[in-house]
Amino acid sequence: MADVATRTIDTAGMGADVSIRSLVKRYGPVTAVEDISLAVASGEFLSVLGPSGSGKTTVLMCLAGFEIPSAGSLHIGGREVTALPPNRREIGVIFQRYALFPHMSVRDNVRFPLKMRGMARRQAEAVVEEALATVRLSGFGDRLPAQLSGGQQQRVALARAISFRPPLLLMDEPLSALDKKLREEMQAEIKDLQRRLGLTVIFVTHDQEEALTMSDRIAVMSHGRLEQVGTPEEIYGNPATSFVARFVGETNILPGIVHRRSGQDGTVALDGGGEIAVPLPAERRLAEGSAAEVMLRPEHVAVMPAGSGVNGLAARLVGHSFAGATVALTFEAAGGQRLVARRPARELAGLAPGAEVVLVPEAGQARCFARTGQGA
Amino acid sequence: MSALAAGDRRRLSGPASLMLVAPFVLVLIAVFCWPILQLLSASLFDPDFTLRHYEQVLTSEFTLGVFLRTFRVSFLVACFALVVGYPVAALMRSLPPMGAAIVGACVLIPLWTSVLVRSFAWTVLLQRNGVVNEALQGLGITSGPLSFLYNEAAVVIAQGHVMLPFMIMPIYQSLRAIPDELPRAALSLGASRTAVFREVIWPLSRPGVVAGFLMVFIVTLGAFVTPALIGGPRSLMLATLISGEITENLNWPLGAALSAVLLVMVMLLIGLFSRFLRFGRVEM
Amino acid sequence: MNVTTRLPHPAIAAARLAGILGVLFLLIPTLIVVPISVGPDKYLHFPPRGFSLEWYGTLIGDPGWMRAALFSLQIAVLVTLLSTALGTAAALALTRGRLHGARALSVAVLAPIVAPNIVVAVAMYLFFSRLGMSGSLVAFVLAHTVLATPYVVITVSAALAAADPDLELAAMSLGASRSRAFVHATLPLILPGVIAGAVFAFVVSFDEAVVSFFLSSVRDKTLPRKIFEELDYDVSPVVAAVSTVLTFLSVGLLGLAAVLRRRAPRAPATKA
């Protein structure tokens, strides 16, 4: 019993580092995860972001030990856990639908992991109260899960998962069942808890906004592969692939042909007419004349009156939608190409549908990718 | 009761509903309720009002012994069905849909097979020149035929077999209602496989266990065919005793009194445990 | 390099084995009866030492067995018709009607299958004996109808509960009369349930052993009563042949009913 107590103190504030090495998971002929390698630092908050079926949950289930990898290895806190049964991994797992034991009170739910570790009842009671206080649910111990709201249930699940002080917390779309306002509250709460306890968190989500707000780093997955790993700023501002650019944030997609390339810069001739200057880093192997897609975030499109003599794409305003501080303006350019610009709301003044304008991409913000089949 | 509001056009009118339900209710009154009342009166009038036959039922050491045995056998049958049935329900729950459907069919086939056919099969298996005896002798384990038939153990096995679907189905239903995340959550929280069963699966499947156990127990109290064919005179059960009083001893009043006691016992049990029971759901 | 296939936990392996043994136990009678019925021996041997349809021949050639089978069939057909009509009507009234005490009534309707068989059988025996009707076709049909109708009520009620009552309202709003709305909007949806109920009723009557045991006379007996007598007297392979036929009939019919109920048309899923 004593060593349980000392261990909880030892690991408090010490998140474990995680290393996923060449992970492969196949279900019969279907490959769910294809050769993923990823290192997560101690105390880091990493989101695994991807659409459903991208393999993100499978990665989490392998880490938790509910699925056995087909190849590769997993290491947590320097210890290999690839084939270790889930009950010996010391990982807190938060499930999409909370997975509270419906026949146990809140207190017994939170006490469960301590009971499984043989902690004496009185000592466990103290830990349970502390964990409930951490999630601001003191006094709810005697209720049954069914008597709590969704957000409260989620907090009980959190209290239960941290009560035994695991160095790693895995969360599988934990907030998807909550409404928007509650979700934002919980995001802040989880983030705060992670910082206070120094936990390493791997957080699976399909919600790009959630990933951008909460994460230290984001790993974007698609079709069982890693598309990009980076800070939210990198993922948003400098997407590595056209998939990442499309999946994270709003974006305009302009098909064209690489017209000219010199050093790190180039221009793309758009299919609908007009040209656009793009940075072309060396790793983008886009030769002159190859089919390309230019991605432009709506907030990087400036709107100028027609005939102001500025170089840009001639377009006509076809609609707008007001979103408080900003307004999304939809334009139609030559060749029927649609573009959205997001501008401060005051800029709408004097623009009526049908107005002729010139759209000017902000210098250096357009991104260019090779055109693949999926964009068609 | 708002669904009964007079303006609800989705409902049939009062007179129409009455006309639809009346024919069966009349048949029920004439061929079910009236005969049972007649039976009760046969136990109380001989020819004048008397409690003599009830006195005989409740004081005769012989009939009390039969009652006791009926309760004991019913309890053992329920235990047997639980021990055999729970793993089957768990297996069904753990299999993918196709496998679960196959096991489900294996559970339902005996339910749909005549009780007589099943008693016949057990007779063939357990009789002196039956399959089990032949096998034991063939393997040199026993030298002569043993008597497996006509005792309580045989009744427990055969009646347990008859009742198994009534045990498996409610347990399976309550196991199916447990989402996969719960055992997974328990594992992630450090529970061993046995602890997952003890702390999560078993408590959550208990409603099904209770329903199945009560159902098997109650139905077996009045079971006739299997105990009559598989059980011997030394393992006489209530239904067989009633049948004997009526068809062999022609002692209608005593048979009627025994029937009345059985009926009241069963009704009491059903009334007491009605919230756990799920009659009429097994075939689903 | 270091991928291990985790073997199932011993406790899980043991539980699975117990489950498989349980399934085998469930199948024992079927696995015994069928081979015996096609074996050539007068005495029962397992496994059979050859293949023969001799016992089926004996069965068909025996007027006693044939009489009992025909009598049971006659009863079962009449019971099916009667209890399907009574049960469907009752189910409609109980699920879609306006009745005082509908809840109590739907419990009362189940009484015949909840009450101990032996008590029901003895009561009916007394009732029909006093009327001098014991052993008559009418007595059997009435008795079995009481026992079979609850199953029809259960299956049809379930089908009705799954059919959206608003469909009838929609049909009426489109100009259909109440009865036409029922025939066109509700009946097609519950028809599989009604047919399944009819199949249950047929099997309940055809397999019914306890009431038949008491109501049968020396001359007029049902198939189950005949098997009962044979079993009490001698275990002959002819019984195995009857049992096989009976098993295949019941399992086939009820399998059909199960398929029908699965195939019942359902309302398109609406997103919550």
From TrEMBL, chain A:
Keyword Transmembrane helix: no
SMART domains: AAA
Annotated GO CC locations: ATP-binding cassette (ABC) transporter complex
GO biological process, one term: putrescine transport
Keywords per UniProt: ATP-binding, Cell membrane, Membrane, Nucleotide-binding, Translocase, Transport
Alphabetical list of InterPro entries matching this protein: AAA+_ATPase (IPR003593), ABC_SmlMolc_Importer (IPR050093), ABC_transporter-like_ATP-bd (IPR003439), ABC_transporter-like_CS (IPR017871), Mo/tungstate-bd_C_term_dom (IPR008995), P-loop_NTPase (IPR027417), PotA-like (IPR005893), Transp-assoc_OB_typ2 (IPR013611)
Pfam families membership: ABC_tran, TOBE_2
EC numbers on record: 7.6.2.11
Top-level taxon of origin: Bacteria
GO MF assignments: ABC-type polyamine transporter activity; ATP binding; ATP hydrolysis activity
Reactions listed under catalytic activity: ATP + H2O + polyamine-[polyamine-binding protein]Side 1 = ADP + phosphate + polyamineSide 2 + [polyamine-binding protein]Side 1
Quaternary structure note: The complex is composed of two ATP-binding proteins (PotA), two transmembrane proteins (PotB and PotC) and a solute-binding protein (PotD).
Function of the molecule: Part of the ABC transporter complex PotABCD involved in spermidine/putrescine import. Responsible for energy coupling to the transport system.
Family: Belongs to the ABC transporter superfamily. Spermidine/putrescine importer (TC 3.A.1.11.1) family.
Name recorded for this polypeptide: Spermidine/putrescine import ATP-binding protein PotA
Species annotation: Chelatococcus caeni
Lineage summary: Bacteria, Pseudomonadati, Pseudomonadota, Alphaproteobacteria, Hyphomicrobiales
Name of the coding gene: potA
TrEMBL record, chain B:
InterPro entries on file: MetI-like, MetI-like_sf
Subcellular location: Cell membrane
Gene3D superfamilies tied to this protein: MetI-like
Domain of life: Bacteria
Principal subcellular localisation of the protein: membrane
Family matches, as PANTHER family: ABC TRANSPORTER PERMEASE PROTEIN (PTHR42929:SF5), INNER MEMBRANE ABC TRANSPORTER PERMEASE PROTEIN YDCU-RELATED-RELATED (PTHR42929)
Record protein name field: Mannopine transport system permease protein
Organism ancestry: Bacteria, Pseudomonadati, Pseudomonadota, Alphaproteobacteria, Hyphomicrobiales
TrEMBL record, chain C:
Transmembrane helix listed as a keyword: yes
Subcellular locations according to the entry: Cell inner membrane; Cell membrane
Record family assignment: Belongs to the binding-protein-dependent transport system permease family.
Chief location: membrane
Membrane spanning stretches: 12-38, 71-95, 107-128, 140-161, 182-206, 238-260
Protein name per Swiss-Prot or TrEMBL: Mannopine transport system permease protein
CDD domains in the record: TM_PBP2 (cd06261)
Keywords: Cell inner membrane, Cell membrane, Membrane, Transmembrane, Transmembrane helix, Transport
GO CC annotation, single: plasma membrane
Gene3D superfamilies per UniProt: MetI-like
Keyword Magnesium: no
SUPFAM superfamilies: MetI-like
Any one biological process term the GO annotation gives: transmembrane transport
Membrane topology note: Multi-pass membrane protein
